Amino acid sequence: MSKTPRALILLLSVLGIGLTACDRDARIAVEAGVSAELARDRAERLSDIHYRLTLDIPREQSEDISAAITIDFELATADTPLQVDFRADAERLHSLSVNGNSAEIRFIDEHVLIGADLLRVGHNTLAFEFLAGNSSLNRNPDFLYTLFVPDRARTAFPVFDQPDLKANWSLTLSLPADWNALSAGPLERREIDSERQTLHFADAGPISTYAFSFVAGAFETVTRDIGGRSMTILHREPDAAKVERNLDAVFQLHGDALAWLEEYTGIPLPYAKLDIALIPAHPYGGMEHVGAIQYRADSLFLDEGAAQARLLGRASLIAHEVAHMWFGNLVTMRWFDDVWTKEVFANFMAAKIVNPSFPDIDHELDFLIDHHPGAYSIDRSEGANAIRQPLANLNQAGQLYGPIIYDKAPIMMRQLERLLGEDRFREGMREYLQTFSHANASWPELIAMLDARSDEDVAAWSEVWVNTPGRPHFSLDDADGGTLELVQSDPAGLGRLWPQSFTVLAEGSDTATRLEMRTPRIALGDMGVTDGEAAVFNADGFGYGLFPASIERLDDWRSMAPLHLASLLIGLYEQMLETGLPSPQTYFPRLLEIAGTSDDQLLLDLALAQLQRIYWTLIPDARRVSLSPTVERTLWRALDKAEDPSLRKLYFKAVASMSLTPQGVARVSQVWSGEQVIEHLPLAENDYIDLAIDLAIKRPKNAEALLSEQRARTKNPDQLRRLEYLAPALSADPAAHDAFFASLSDEGKRATESWTLDALGILHHPMRVRSSEAYLLPSLELLEEIQATGDIFFPAGWLRTTFRNHHSDVAVATVRGFLEARPDYNAQLRMKILQAADPLLRANRLRGSG
C-alpha cells in the first residue's frame, strides 16, 4: 500500500484540509487536545489496553530517540474511525500497522486517525515506529525523566491519553551501559553489549497514562529492605555526607507511610514495588508515578541543620506521594475536573500519617500555617475558582491546579470528616477504594457513599464548599437586647452559607469554645465572649473565612498558645489586605516584635513570611529604608540569642534577605565569604549560592566577581549549570537583563522551569521592579504559549513570580489593560492572571493609602 509522504501529511495537517473529508462518518470531531466528548466515546469503546513501548536513548541529548510502541486493545464497536493522540510533528511518525497490515498515516490536529475499515470488533493491534517527542521527556546532558501529567504522554508517543483508559505497560529501554533507570514495573532483565545495555521492565498496571513514567541517566542507586519490601533510591547528589545524613530518614518515612496506609485502607500496596528517583530542579515537589515516585532532590536530601518546618515538610511530601498509590493511582478520577480529589485525599491522609512520626509537633498549628494563607490567597482574589471546575479539553487541565486544590480542599475535607465522624468517614473511604479499585470514580459517586452514612445533607454541603468559589466573611453584631452575635455573610451576595465548625477564644481564657455554625447568625454570650474585639475567632484554625481580628489582642501575645496566636496573625493579615485595618505600617512593628522573640519554628516561619511581604511590597520605599536598621538589629539579636541551629538558620535567611544598610549587607557578605563564621549556623552549598545571588542584586558592581567566586566554590555540577543559566539575570548591565528576558520566548530556554522561575524572581526582585515593569506586558503576551508548552504549575508560577513584588499604577494598568483588550481571552488563564495580580492590586491600594 502506498503511503502519503510525511511532508505532505504535515502540510495537510497545518492547512486543515484533505483528511477530514475522508472521515465524515466520524461521530467525534477531530480537534487539538483530548476533548471531553472524545474521551467519553473512547471510554465506551475501548478496554483491556496494553502498551509495549521501546525506546533507544542515545547518550547525547541532541540526538533523537528512536522508538516503537505496540498498542493492544479490545474494541466494542468498529463502525467509526478511532483517534490516537500524538502531539508532535507528523514527520516524527515513520510507520503504522493495524492488525498486522501496513497502513497509511493519517494525521490531523494532534491525532492519528485509524479508519473504521481497518478496525474490527474485539481484539486489535496498532504498531507505530517513530521518533519520540521531547517536550515531556525532560532531557538533560546525562539524564532524563518523564512527566506526563495531565495529558503529556501524547507528546512523547502515540497513546490514548485520558485518565479513565487505564492500561498495562511494558517498557524496554536501550541506554548507555553506565546509566541506571527506573520505571513503573520491576526490572525483569538486563542485557549488556559493549557500551550499550537493554533493560526490560515487567508489566505494570492498570495505570492511567499520566501515572506511567521512567527515569534514566547517570544516577547512583541505593537499595534497602524496608518493612520486608525492597526499595531503591536513584540520586545524583555528589556530597556523600549529605546522602548519608538523609538516607535513613527518607527510606523510613516511605516505609512508615506505606504501613499506615495499608492499615487505614485495609488494602496492601496495589503495585509490585515502590522506588524513588531524586531529580535536580524537578518542577514539582514530587510526582506520584506508579512504582517510581519522583521528587525534587532538595526536597528530600536536606541540608544540615534543616529547620523543623523543613523536616515536617519532607515527611508530609513523602506521605502525600505515597498516599497517591491508593488515592489517585488505585482509584483515579474519571476526568480531570476531579483532579483535585486525588490531591485532597493525598494531602488529607498525609496530615494524618506524619503525626506519629513527629509527636512533639503541634500538628494543628502546622496545618493552619500550611493551608490557610495559600487558600486565602486565591479565594480573596478576583479570579477565585471553585474546588471542582468544569473542563472541556484535557489540554486545559493544567490550569486546574493551584492552592484551591492543595490548600482549601484539605480544609474542606477536615470539615467533612467532622460532619460525618471519623469512623463513618473511614468506612466510606474504604468502600470507595474497594468499589473502584483499579478503576475510575467521580466526586459525586463518593459523596453518594458518604451521604448514605450521614443524617446530614452531605450533597447540599458539598455544593457550597466544593462547587462554588470564594470564602465567607464573618462580622460582629450587637443584636436586639445587646446580645453579641457572630454573623456569616456571602461577599458575592449569593446568600450562600458555609456550614462549619471552629473555636472561639474569649479574652482572659486559656480554653477555646467550639462553635457549630450552621445558621447565618449565632449568639456568643454563652461562650463567654462579651467583647468581640478581644476574642480570637477560629482559634483552632479549623474554620475558613475572613474572621474579625483586632490588633489590640496582640497586647498579651506572649501568654497565647502558638496555635491561637498564629490564627490571630493570619486573621490580622487578611483584614489588613481586605480592609486596610490594621495598616501595614501599624502591623509591622508588632509583627517584628513577635518575630524577634518567638522560639516556635512554625510560628516564626509564619511571622517572618508576613514580615518580609510587608517590608518589601506593602510599605513605601522610603519607610522601608528607615526601618531597615531596626529590622537588621532585631533579627541579628534574635539570631544571637537563639540556641537551636534551626532557629538560627531561619533568622539568618530572613536578615540576609532584608538587609539594606551598607553595614548589614557587608555583614552578610562576610558570612558568605567565610570572613565571619557564626557558631551553630549550618550553611550548605545551596545556602551560599542563594547568598551570592542576593548579594549580586544588592551590589551589582560586584556581581561578576561574586558569581565567579561562587562558581569556583560550587561542587555540584547541576548547581553549576543553574548558576550559568542565572548569570545574565544577575548582570550589572540592564541590557543583559533585557536580552535574557527576550530569550525566554524560546521554549528551549524555558526547559528547566524551576531555573526560569528563579531567573524571573531575580529580574522582578523588589529592588528592580521599576526597570522590570517593561517585562510585564510581554510576560502576559507569552502566557498562552507558556500554558501550551509548560508543565502544570509553570503558568501560575510564571505569573506569580512576575507580579508578586510589583505595586505601581503602571503595573496595575498593564494587567487591567491586557484583560480589557481581550474580552474573549481563555477563561481559565484570565482567572490565573487575576489570582497572580491580587498581591499587586492590594499592594497598590495599601501603598496609595499610606
Q: Overview of this structure, please?
A:
- It is a single chain.
- Strand 6 and strand 7 form a beta hairpin.
- It contains 28 helices and 28 strands.
- It is of the alpha+beta class.
- It starts with 5 loop residues before the first helix and ends with a helix.
- 43% of the residues lie in helices and 18% in strands.
- The strands form seven sheets. An eight-stranded mixed sheet has the order 5-4-8-2-1-11-14-13. A five-stranded mixed sheet has the order 16-17-18-20-19.
- It is globular and about 80 Å long.
- Helix 20 (717-730) packs parallel to helix 22 and helix 27 (809-820) runs antiparallel to helix 28.
What's the short story on this structure?
Helix content is 43%, strand content 18%. With 850 residues, the chain is of the alpha+beta class.
Descriptors:
single chain; 850 residues; 8-stranded mixed β-sheet; 5-stranded mixed β-sheet; disordered N terminus
Instruction: State the secondary-structure class.
Output: alpha+beta
Number of strands: 28
Give average pLDDT, whole number.
Answer: 94
Q: Compute the CA-based radius of gyration.
A: 28 Å
What low-confidence regions span 5 or more consecutive residues with pLDDT below 50? 1-25
Q: How many individual helices? A: 28
Give the termini separation: 77 Å
> Helix proportion of residues, in percent?
40-55%
Largest sheet geometry: 8 strands, mixed
> In one word, what is the shape?
globular
Q: Roughly what fraction of the amino acids lie in strands?
A: 15-25%
Which sequence of strands runs across the widest sheet? 5-4-8-2-1-11-14-13
